[in-house]
Structure formats: C-alpha cells, structure tokens
Design a protein that fits this description.
Alpha-Beta Plaits; single chain; globular; 38% helix; nine-stranded mixed sheet; alpha+beta; Alpha-D-Glucose-1,6-Bisphosphate, Chain A, domain 4; 2 domains; 356 residues; seven-stranded antiparallel sheet
Length: 356
C-alpha cells in the first residue's frame, strides 16, 4: 500500500438507472455491449474535469481535486451537459442499432443519475487497485441516497448535491429541492435533470453560423472545452484577459443561462451582455447592447474540442437587427477586432500558466 497525503475534492458517482430490468429483459450480449458503451461515453464527457477512480458495475466513480473547479457553476453545467448528451446518445443507439433485439429496443429506458459530495480523502492503491479512502467517497459509493430520492421525488434522471458540496461551490440555485437522507448526518439537495432536458428540447435555438455572420474568426487554445469555458464565462477570469472589467448582473434562478446579464464598463460608456442561448461547453449566443450609442449586436461563441487538451474557439458576430445601418456595422467590426485582440491575450496567458 502506498502512503499518500490527504486531499480535498469532489467525489462523484454517475449511476446508470434501470440496469437490472434492462438486463433481465434483454439479450445479455447486446445488453452488456450497450452498458459498456454508455459507461465509456460518460467517462469521455466527465474527462478531464473528473478523473475516473473505478467502475462500480453500472456506475462510474470519479473525483475532481478542488483546484480543478474554480467556478462553481461549472460543475452544474458539466452534469447538465453530460446528461443531455447521454439522453441524445440513447436515441442514437436506438437509431443506429437495427437488429431489433430487446436490448437495442429497451436502451432508451436507461436513465442517469449523479451524486456529488465534497470533503477529504486519501488516494490509495492496494494490489494495483486504485481507490479513494474517506467519509466523503464512502457516502457517495454506498448509495444510501438512492432510495430516499426515489421515495420523495420519484425522479429517474437527477443530480444530488450535498450541503458540503454546495458550500464549497458557493452556490445554491433556486430549483434545488431538499432530500432527507436517513440519519440526517449529510444534508442533500436534488436537481431534476430529466425535466430540464425536456425543457431544453423545447427551447428556441439561437446560433449564428460563420456564413451568416458579418465577421467571424477562430482561435485555438491549449485547454479542454470545460477549462476554456470557465476562463470565458467567469467574470473575474474574463476581466484578467479582457482588460475591461466584467461583473455578473441578473441571474435567473441563481444560475447563468438564457436571460442572464453581464456588465462591462469601458470608460466612455458600458456594455450589457444578455445570454440568448446557453449550451455549456458547446456554444452560447449573446446579445450586446453598447451604450450610450444603443447599438445592438449578437455573437455566437462555439467550442470545438480538437483533443483533450486543445479547443478551437469560433466567434461569429452580426448586428442584432438585419436592417442595421453603417454605424452598427462599423461598431461590429471594432467589436470583432477587440474580441480577437482580447482572446489573443487569453491565449498567451493560458500558455504561460501551462508552463509554470
């Protein structure tokens, strides 16, 4: 056994729901293939923010040291985006697999739930088996939280957060619901991911392509989409490379998303950024209102994963009004030039930090 020091971080369990009835009602070979495919899919989505510690049958047990999550909302966004991609993957399995067996037909019944804690643990290796030792990972892996959530909420797809986790993140969104766990030693709060996924499907998509844009460009960054997303959407981090100061204003339900507003003071006036469409780690679209000129423009920022450690960022900018005059188009050009200049600063900053 290798002695290691105590660390602090977020132990997480991503647990596929409905596996027992799925296996019982399906051909074992195909059922096993599908479960393995889904586990690999979940791992790919959680990486590199979370490191896989073990595969617990139908679940992925992983952890993230506290320094990996510097912006609290990133954890919520990661779980929501992973869940959305997982549900889309289930539909893809049903479409691509055409053998007609019960396993392929029943795959859409498999859901996904997460549980996340925060606390101390010791990374341990015994007989070449890696594990985390500590009360926080023990609570997550013991899964005593599953039955209370089912009885109280009857959710299939959800994320469960402990109070310790939320306190460390500095967040407590309004749509979290308290879930009582027997014993009461750990307070937990749940988020219904299934209902959020259904709402996402109904939301209007606002996406500006490079062909539609008045100005567009792309830059590559030495970071994963998850890491780059934090640099761009955390107001404090954004101010470091943008030079001008950004602050968070309106947050519907306490979270960043469609309708959220950010503010930038640039001396001769100010800029209000309103989020129109929000798909974490994939893209977001904002409307910028530049005052005192009252000029409005829209920008889509798309994150393309080139590899685990490199992301290509695509920006597409256009006037918010199709009939905009020359002044708005001129301001769009200046805005695009400054965005490119500021993002080049971010490139250098990230490259410097990566070397240190």
């Amino acid at each position: 056994m290798n002695g290691r020091s105590i660390e602090r971080g977020y132990p997480l369990l991503a647990d596929i729901s409905g596996v027992v009835p799925f296996v019982m009602e399906s051909e074992i070979e195909h059922a096993n293939e599908i479960i393995q495919e889904l586990l690999e899919f979940i791992i790919a989505k959680l990486n590199p923010t979370f490191t896989v510690a073990q595969i617990d049958g139908d679940a992925v047990f992983a952890y993230a040291p506290q320094e990996r999550i510097t912006r609290g909302e990133t954890l919520f966004e990661l779980l929501e985006s992973t869940y959305t991609a997982y549900k889309d993957q289930l539909l893809q399995i049903s479409r691509v697999r055409t053998c007609g067996c019960n396993a392929c037909r029943n795959a859409s019944n498999l859901d996904l739930k997460f549980a996340v804690h925060f606390g101390e643990y010791i990374p341990s290796e015994f007989h070449k088996q890696f594990d985390l030792i500590g009360l926080a990972p023990f609570f997550i892996r013991k899964r005593e939280w599953k039955a209370p959530v089912k009885e109280a909420k009857d959710w299939r797809g959800y994320a469960l957060f402990t109070q310790d986790c939320l306190s460390q993140l500095g967040l407590h969104p309004e749509d979290l619901l308290s879930v009582e766990i027997p014993g009461g030693s750990v307070r937990t709060f749940g988020l219904n991911l299934e209902s959020r996924y259904e709402s996402t499907l109904e939301n209007r998509r606002v996406f500006i392509t490079a062909n539609e844009a008045l100005y567009s460009f792309a830059l590559e960054f030495p970071a994963s989409p998850t890491s780059l997303w934090q640099w761009i959407n955390d107001p404090e981090k954004r101010t470091r490379w943008y030079i001008l100061k950004w602050t968070a204003h309106a947050r519907l339900g306490g979270r960043t998303g469609s309708g959220a507003v950010n503010h930038c003071n640039h001396g001769i006036g100010d800029t209000l950024e309103t989020i129109l469409d929000w798909h974490p780690f994939e893209y977001y679209t904002s409307e910028y209102r530049i005052r005192p000129f009252n000029i409005r423009m829209q920008q889509t920022t798309k994150f393309e994963a080139v590899s685990n450690d490199n992301t290509r960022l695509h920006l597409s900018i256009q006037p918010a009004d199709a009939s905009a005059g020359w002044l708005t188009k001129f301001m769009c050009r200046l805005f695009a030039m400054y965005e490119k200049y500021a993002l080049t600063r971010l490139q250098h900053l990230m490259e410097t930090e990566k070397k240190t």
